[in-house]
Amino acid sequence: MRTSITVFTLLVTVTLLIVQSYHQKGYTNVSGAPAGRAASPFDFGGLACNASGCHTGFPLTSRPGWITSTIPGSGYVPGQTYTITATAVSSPNRVRFGFEISPQTSTGANAGQMIITNTTTTHFVIAAAPNSTRWITHTLTGSSAAATPGIKAWSFNWTAPASGTGTVTFYGAFNSANNSNSSIGDSIFTSQLVVPENPTEVLEEARENFSFSVYPVPADENLFVRLRTNDTSLPAIELTDISGKIIRKISDVESASTPEYTLNVNTSDLDSGIYFIRVIHGSSVAVRKIVIL
After folding, report:
1. Is the Cβ–Cβ distance between 143 and 30 less than 8 Å?
2. 47: pLDDT confidence band, cut at 50, 70 and 90?
């Protein structure tokens, strides 16, 4: 009889531990989302927090406008710092929210530098270097919306990347939780903020006898090369691939009627990827990287 009671007690204890572990696993995300859950197509194929074994219950839904910034419509200026705000909006009875955001280039690389401005509500996702600052998420305190039921906002700073990086996409995933101490019944949303690089601030190149700029970056169907020279000769301008092979001669050396002009380059027939614009003027040569979408 004593043996039966002991076995029964052991089974009950193990069951309780399993149940507790299950609830803790679903609820530990209250202190921050796991790495790579911002719905970026470059992170685990676009994984968000509605994955199997995580938050389930409702279909994944897109919400435009949940990520905003102080970046002007003309685009970010390389090296400048801006404020990024993430805002989740749900039914008034929701008092627990979460988020994860990652700014990435058109190839999925880290874009710029995120800066924590409120350590109480946000922190970086713990991940192996060099990805330790690839994602930003909520803290335990930062998940509470008890003071503002139905809405929760977080903010952080972002320093724009180097010139020539091109368009940056802020990928984000949000959790509107039912606060049940489990991952069941929560609603997961995604949102994106796409910001271009300011075309007047990128790809400037100067030499003793000429200067030029290239825009927009990245380019889609048309690329513009703007030149300024100290005489009326038109430099040789070449479009090359990443290996240096000449894809197209935009112009040959010839006489020009003005020391400043803009050339329109049709790029609609080019494959997406990295290319270079090479300008040769006398003994001076300048090369700039461009990206074709």
Report:
1. yes
2. low
Q: Are 98 and 175 in a shared domain?
A: yes
Average pLDDT (69-91) is 91
Q: What is the number of other CB atoms lying within 10 angstroms of the CB of residue 213? A: 21
Same domain as 180, residue 42: yes
Q: For 67-109, list the strands marked E by DSSP.
A: 67-69, 81-89, 96-104
- Is residue 12 domain-resident? no
Q: How far is CA 44 from the centre of its chain?
A: 15
Structural domain of 254: 205-292
244-287: per-residue pLDDT in tens?
Answer: 788 888 865 444 556 677 788 888 889 888 888 888 877 777 78
CATH code for position 267 = 2.60.40.3080
Q: Does pTM surpass 0.70? A: no
d(CA 272, CA 255): 33
Contact 188, 50 (CB under 8 A): yes
Q: List C-alpha distances in Å: 137 to 41, 111, 115.
A: 18, 17, 12
At a CB cut-off of 8 Å and minimum separation 6, what does 37 contact? 43, 47, 48, 49, 51, 54, 100, 135, 173
